[in-house]
Amino acid sequence: MFVLRESGSGASGGYGTVLIVPLEDLPAWLPAWCLDHLGGEPAGMLGWLALLGTEERYDDPLGTALDALWVKRGDAGGAWERRPSDPEAIAATGLFGTSACLADRQQTILPPGDVIGLESTRATFLSWPHDIQRHFTGELRQLLESQSVVHLTRCTSVTMAQVLGDRS
User: What total number of domains does the chain contain?
Assistant: First the structure.
């Protein structure tokens, strides 16, 4: 997901607009937004792009097996594995200044039931028909049968860049 915020000119100094769009829609959606919002804003209004990235990386052999399960059940063929980094995606648009990125990684341990709960909250899982959700969950339970705990690394990043003004 990515979040786009425009600074507001209100007394509170809060945000005027917060938009949340699926990351896969970024290449098509972002240029149109920027063209609609550049040049017509009052003085002092600056557009910023903020990309929030979160993911869990499970230790192998579960990590590799779970990736294969997502590819098998999903319709994207593992496209999330091949997407450019956020700074690369931002730079490729030509619509933003230099981006800044902060990242954090934390190792943790979960019980297998929490892994099932986590994986069943993903948007892709929730978009599937009930029978595919049930099959995916059953296969995930089989992968977790022999594990009393699951080791994973939680990765979180935020990348920000200012919308360029006049590009002429």
Answer: 1
